[in-house]
């Protein structure tokens, strides 16, 4: 059975039952974590949960202590990887209010991912209400310093205890939250990229444009190879040698004629950060083109000067210039320095300015979380 989009179905307002954590992280320990948040290393005191089954639909919406999830060893997710997730950030503005960025787009992407992984689609208003719940109960976990945020991780998986290969008839949705600083350990200065010449992340008609755990599982071995070669991230190509994306970021090229180019295909996750940066570039009068870019065009363009700058972008990493492109070509290793341009930094500043409430949100991208 193919489930069709639920976004057109009316959804009932969702009421959350709250079970408070009786042993929250002591305030002093929380302050220590917030003084130097890593990425994805510490978690807040609570999480959101919601259950789904064919008979009741979404039900049992709750806020509960962050902690282990009890499931049968035969649950579908452990065997067939029926799992999807999202990633977005809550920002504390100077006046103390808490906002997030384009969450409706994450909610819709979550629905598309659910559709592809044959999971039930969560109504957009349930997704948004869940974000408000976690931020309300764990308000004190939202950092306020520049470059810091509370990373919100909604995820869903097939929880039915059944080993036949078909869509689970029971699923669970959760949101966990983690104070976040820079994604890369070295900070946000720049990254070096290793081209995965053999392993691919996705294929046409596959799950590349869905945000599902399996895509990331497939990227871990090549990501290990990138690290072995002294690089920060893996670049994935399609079967024709065109640039897809990195394991957790989209790629954007700035050409010498000022055109901004980005690859688009069903093997690439359509990033909300990239979409926003392209809009900001268009607002500056720059031409944006979505087309395939081969690795050969990239390397030759850098050599000839027709590629002025290349950067990567995503929620966790924000915007990060690529300083080095490395890989194997004809059995020989290459390490090519990339030109340093100014657009990545300038777009990053503008995006962060909007997200932190300093600059005019002229596209209406911000969404307030700390109100009903
Ligand atoms: N591509 C992949 C594979 C990702 O994991 C991410 C991060 O979520 C992105 C691109 C960027 O997407 P977004 O800007 O919506 O975070
Ligand atoms: C994000 O940028 O939100 C991601 O999901 C990337 C990575 C941490 C998986």
Automatic annotation (TrEMBL):
Could you tell me the EC number(s) of this protein? Answer: 2.6.1.42
Extract one GO BP annotation from the record.
Answer: L-valine biosynthetic process
Pfam families recorded: Aminotran_4
- Cite the entry's keywords alphabetically: Amino-acid biosynthesis, Aminotransferase, Branched-chain amino acid biosynthesis, Pyridoxal phosphate, Transferase
Instruction: Name any cofactors this protein relies on.
Output: pyridoxal 5'-phosphate
Q: Which reaction is catalysed here?
A: L-leucine + 2-oxoglutarate = 4-methyl-2-oxopentanoate + L-glutamate; L-isoleucine + 2-oxoglutarate = (S)-3-methyl-2-oxopentanoate + L-glutamate; L-valine + 2-oxoglutarate = 3-methyl-2-oxobutanoate + L-glutamate
Entry's Gene Ontology molecular function annotations: L-isoleucine-2-oxoglutarate transaminase activity; L-leucine-2-oxoglutarate transaminase activity; L-valine-2-oxoglutarate transaminase activity
| InterPro entries noted in UniProt | Aminotrans_IV (IPR001544), Aminotransferase-like (IPR036038), B_amino_transII (IPR005786), BCAT-like_C (IPR043132), BCAT-like_N (IPR043131), BCAT_family (IPR033939)
Top enzyme class, one word, equals transferase
Q: In which pathway does it act?
A: Amino-acid biosynthesis; L-leucine biosynthesis; L-leucine from 3-methyl-2-oxobutanoate: step 4/4; Amino-acid biosynthesis; L-valine biosynthesis; L-valine from pyruvate: step 4/4; Amino-acid biosynthesis; L-isoleucine biosynthesis; L-isoleucine from 2-oxobutanoate: step 4/4
> Where N6-(pyridoxal phosphate)lysine occurs, residue numbers?
211
Q: Which family does it belong to?
A: Belongs to the class-IV pyridoxal-phosphate-dependent aminotransferase family.
Official protein name in the record: branched-chain-amino-acid transaminase
* Organism per entry: Corynebacterium heidelbergense
